[in-house]
Specification:
mainly alpha, 231 residues
């Protein structure tokens, strides 16, 4: 009988090296049965096992909708499994991503743990449509009360702007303000964002000269000063 935990899967792989293909096929069939059930704990465990198998080169796309189901769980430890699987297997070409817009909006307005999880996932699988639909929320979150959330938003915006260039002029005023953020990690992330974006159109960032000069003359962070000089 096939055990249901990731640990058992790993032990089984080690014990069946001579007939690994057959063992994995049996495991995938069991996982398919588990994700069809209504038990979210069991379904999340199945997605976790399939995520591990995906790392070994086995296709996970058939479980994309089930991954979204786990992402939408109200329990944080299950939600993390869903976002882990999505971050690893989803890409901008994944069809079911159109179903995640409302889920991401909900998580981005939830508690700080869910917000951080959603921002991390978004930076991995953002599409042009998601970037367009979430730009307004992300721009507002640049003024979040928690500095580590502001830092994550800045970093996520790099991928968002790559997919949806119109997000840059919309978010630029608040991004410019982040160069004077009281938290040094937020300032550092913003400098890094502008350094990468300026590779394409440096002239778009000439308005940042005053705050960047202030950083250059007052900061003691060598890494950040190198980035400012590059800019």
């Amino acid at each position: 009988m096939w055990e249901r935990t990731l640990q058992d899967l790993i032990r089984g792989l080690r014990a069946n090296k001579t007939d690994e293909r057959k063992f994995i096929q049996q495991a995938i069939e069991e996982i398919r049965k588990e994700v069809r059930g209504k038990d979210m704990e069991l379904k999340a465990g199945a997605i976790l096992k399939m995520t591990f198998l995906d790392m070994l080169g086995h296709d996970l796309t058939w479980a994309n909708f089930n991954i979204i189901e786990v992402m939408s769980s109200q329990k944080y430890h299950l939600k993390t499994i869903g976002y882990l699987a999505a971050s690893q297997s989803f890409s901008e070409h994944t069809d079911v991503l159109m179903l995640t817009t409302n889920l991401l909006k909900k998580d981005l307005s939830s508690n700080p743990a869910d917000v951080a999880l959603a921002l991390n996932g978004l930076s991995h699988f953002v599409t042009s449509d998601l970037a367009r639909d979430l730009t307004q929320e992300l721009n507002a979150m640049l003024n979040h009360s928690r500095s580590y959330i502001r830092k994550r938003v800045v970093l996520a915006l790099f991928k968002v702007i790559q997919q949806h260039p119109d997000a840059l002029p919309y978010c630029l005023p608040r991004l410019k303000e982040k160069l004077e953020d009281p938290d040094l990690s937020v300032v550092s992330s913003t400098v890094n964002l502008f350094c990468e974006l300026s590779r394409r159109n440096p002239q778009d960032f000439l308005i940042l000269a005053p705050p960047l000069f202030h950083i250059l003359t007052t900061s003691s962070n060598n890494w950040m000063l190198i980035k400012v000089i590059k800019l």
